[in-house]
């Protein structure tokens, strides 16, 4: 539970309140699990999980929990072994960790999100267990929420970027400190491509390319996107470049200390920024960044040798050149994800098949890589991969994968639309209700 466990005890008369009859509450074999939460938490972060759950200790303040299957627990413990190092980096950057414990719960595959930042116990999709510790990036994001999102929370969903933009920035600082500048640059590059793609997605409704949005009468799940994450990150990165990292680090610590355990809005943040960084509004157009549509002209793609090399290789693919085995020898999931994300949207089916024959991307254990490849395969109408698409849509319920695969199918020919409808009708009951409604919305727009 996202609270401290106090004790397990026998039920007492008077405990039940109005929950149920006293005789049922105190029946033989019943036990009471008592939890306490001393810190005030955002109202959307009250969470508990029920099941036959086992655990593994991975650090002085971290256990990994999952269904009591030794193989899953062992894999999760190995993937997240570096969690304590990340907590220490976070504390150095943003101030003390105020929640005492940082436990991780790996949920079944139907969990619709990558992670959910419940205080004390983060909920995670099993797709983050990749076998090479790179899944720890999602943990870094949820850990960063311990300061930006849990400690300081957006007042309403119109100000969602205050949670996610700050957390994406904080996550990348943690990743840079633990895994190095190159990996951080890859993450920024993948995020930049995602932001550019979202501009295309919202071209007919640019309201949702703003940081400060108006979501009155709108289902947040319908307009959920990378914009608050990546445009928010870009805004904070822009401020960092303007005033320098040491000054920005001091500003962040001051900001977190000033507003901890409070819910705030964009105006509050901007007032605090202008007070603590005098003259910043003369250097950066704060209104364009927060209330303007699209990507501001002073946003920036990352600059690094590895990022430039991968994007360059992706651009050569259209001319028929695929990367050599020597060029990809040291690539892991993030390098392949960046490469695939930057390939042309549609290429010859024979090129897609040749790429997979050489590098087996459709068989990747990393869903980021597999789904990026399958999107390419659908766009190129490589029907020999549709059985892999179907298997993927039936084995995971994470919306990050469902959304692009179903969208790619319904934007294709009639055959693919019928295929998408059939797969959804067969997989629907295995999805979380939020994921069900998102997929239904995608299908209804195109069918």
From TrEMBL:
Alphabetized Gene3D superfamilies for the sequence: 3.30.2010.30, Neutral Protease Domain 2, Peptidase M1, leukotriene A4 hydrolase/aminopeptidase C-terminal domain
**How many and how are cofactors bound here?**
Binds 1 zinc ion per subunit.
Against InterPro entries, the record matches this protein to: ARM-type_fold, M1_LTA-4_hydro/amino_C_sf, M1_LTA4H, Peptidase_M1, Peptidase_M1_C, Peptidase_M1_dom, Peptidase_M4/M1_CTD_sf
Q: Which prosthetic group or cofactor does it need?
A: Zn(2+)
This protein's UniProt keywords = Cytoplasm, Hydrolase, Metal-binding, Metalloprotease, Protease, Zinc
- Give the similarity note: Belongs to the peptidase M1 family.
Q: What is this protein called?
A: Leucine aminopeptidase
Please tell me the species this chain comes from: Centaurea solstitialis
């Amino acid at each position: 539970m996202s609270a401290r466990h106090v004790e397990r005890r026998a039920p007492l008369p008077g405990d039940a309140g109005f929950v149920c009859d006293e005789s049922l509450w105190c029946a033989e074999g019943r036990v009471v699990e008592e939890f306490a939460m001393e810190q005030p938490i955002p109202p959307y972060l009250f969470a508990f999980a029920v099941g036959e759950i086992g655990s593994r200790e991975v650090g002085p303040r971290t256990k990994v929990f999952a269904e009591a299957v030794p193989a899953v627990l062992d894999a999760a413990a190995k993937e997240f072994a570096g969690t304590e190092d990340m907590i220490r980096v976070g504390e150095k950057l943003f101030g003390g960790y105020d929640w005492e414990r940082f436990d991780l719960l790996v949920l079944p595959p139907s969990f619709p999100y990558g992670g959910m930042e419940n205080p004390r116990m983060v909920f995670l999709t099993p797709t983050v267990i990749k076998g090479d510790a790179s899944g720890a990036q999602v943990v870094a994001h949820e850990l960063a929420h311990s300061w930006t999102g849990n400690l300081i929370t957006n007042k309403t969903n119109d100000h969602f970027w205050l949670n996610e933009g700050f957390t994406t920035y904080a996550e990348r600082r943690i990743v840079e400190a633990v895994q190095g500048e190159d990996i951080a640059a890859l993450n920024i590059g993948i995020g930049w491509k995602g932001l550019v793609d979202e501009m295309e997605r919202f071209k007919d409704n640019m309201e949702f390319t703003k940081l400060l949005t108006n979501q009155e009468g709108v289902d947040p799940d319908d307009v959920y996107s990378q914009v608050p994450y990546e445009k928010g990150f870009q805004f904070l990165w822009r401020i960092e470049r303007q005033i320098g990292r040491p000054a920005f680090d001091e500003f962040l610590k001051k900001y977190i200390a000033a507003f901890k355990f409070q819910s705030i809005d964009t105006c509050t943040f901007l007032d605090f920024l202008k007070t603590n960084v005098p003259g910043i509004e003369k250097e950066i157009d704060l209104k364009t960044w927060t209330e303007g549509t699209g990507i501001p002209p002073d946003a920036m793609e990352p600059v690094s040798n590895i990022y430039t090399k991968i994007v360059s290789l992706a651009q050569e693919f259209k001319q028929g050149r695929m990367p050599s085995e020597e060029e990809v020898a040291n690539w892991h999931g993030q390098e392949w994800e960046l490469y695939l994300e930057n390939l042309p949207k549609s290429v010859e089916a024979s090129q897609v098949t040749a790429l997979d024959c050489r590098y087996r991307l459709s068989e990747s254990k990393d869903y980021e890589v597999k789904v990026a490849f399958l999107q390419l395969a659908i766009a190129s109408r490589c029907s020999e991969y549709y059985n892999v698409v179907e298997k993927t849509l039936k084995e995971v319920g994470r919306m990050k994968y469902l959304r692009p695969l179903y969208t790619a199918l319904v934007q294709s020919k009639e055959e693919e639309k019928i295929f998408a409808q059939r797969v959804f009708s067969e997989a629907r009951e295995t999805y979380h209700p939020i994921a069900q409604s998102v997929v239904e919305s995608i299908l209804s727009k195109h069918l």
